[in-house]
Design goal:
Helix content: over 70%
Distance between the termini: 34 Å
Number of helices: 10
Low-confidence stretches: none
């Protein structure tokens, strides 16, 4: 029998909105998932579950843009990810809930309010380092963001960027799930939510592509920024004043 509750509906709806946002605006999905999960899940489950909910979106793009992937970027990125996830997953399960909640809220506020940084690395082949830093931040606090900023300055065309990022993020996501599992996180209680959320993500992607030009991007970004800010402040309150 299908066992559903408020948490189920909120996370599945959030996964739909995240996929819709990525399809319609090419951004926002990861932060939407983070905002939703941090509202209804136990603090210790936020980052591990966040990884699974994004797999549906990234793996779909991986398949659609397979021939556009620049493996000279993706392979060294994933090499750095292996090391980062091995370290980060172990650290994550040992962090107190108060530290996790406070750190995630700070990451969310920085990501939503910091002006875009157009930094181009001076190293000739920085991708192992980028993979390590991005994956370590993502493993600990759910949001890496470094890859997104740097890959735009590589000279790759749009389809190549989409495909290469999909390869990097799908591989990193799978590594994170394995790392959390080995470190002791139990995904079994969340399997039903994960399956339905991935299905909702496919629907959100399809709908987002259909209405991409019918929504004011300015309105969306303003509302989105407000909601993420409120969620981050709430999570920071939990982190600073939790008695657990």
């Amino acid at each position: 029998m299908l066992d559903v509750d408020t948490t189920f509906y909120i996370i599945v709806a959030g996964s739909f909105l995240a996929a819709f946002s990525n399809a319609a605006f090419a951004a926002g999905g990861a932060l939407i998932i983070l905002a939703v999960t941090s509202t209804v899940l136990p603090v210790a489950a936020i980052v591990p579950i966040h990884s699974t909910l994004l797999i549906g979106s990234t793996s779909t793009r991986l398949l659609f843009f397979w021939h556009e992937i620049d493996w000279k970027i993706a392979v060294p990125f994933l090499v750095g990810s292996v090391v980062a996830v091995a370290i980060g997953a172990r650290l994550y399960v040992e962090l107190p809930d108060t530290v996790i909640a406070t750190a995630i809220s700070i990451v969310m506020l920085i990501a939503i309010w910091l002006p875009e940084v157009k930094w181009r690395p001076k190293l000739r082949n920085p991708w192992v380092i980028v993979g390590f830093i991005h994956s370590l931040l993502s493993t600990l606090f759910a949001y890496g963001a470094l890859l997104h900023a740097i890959i735009l300055h590589t000279g790759l065309k749009k389809r190549q960027i989409v495909g290469t990022m999909a390869a990097c993020l799908t591989g990193m996501g799978l590594l994170k799930i394995i790392g959390y599992t080995i470190s002791g996180f139990d995904y079994v209680p969340y399997l039903q939510i994960i399956v339905f959320s991935i299905a909702a993500a496919f629907l959100g992607t399809w709908l987002g592509k259909m209405v991409v030009d019918r929504i004011s991007e300015a309105l969306f970004r303003n509302v989105f920024r407000l909601l993420v800010t409120v969620t981050a402040i709430r999570l920071m309150y939990v982190g600073l004043f939790s008695q657990s």
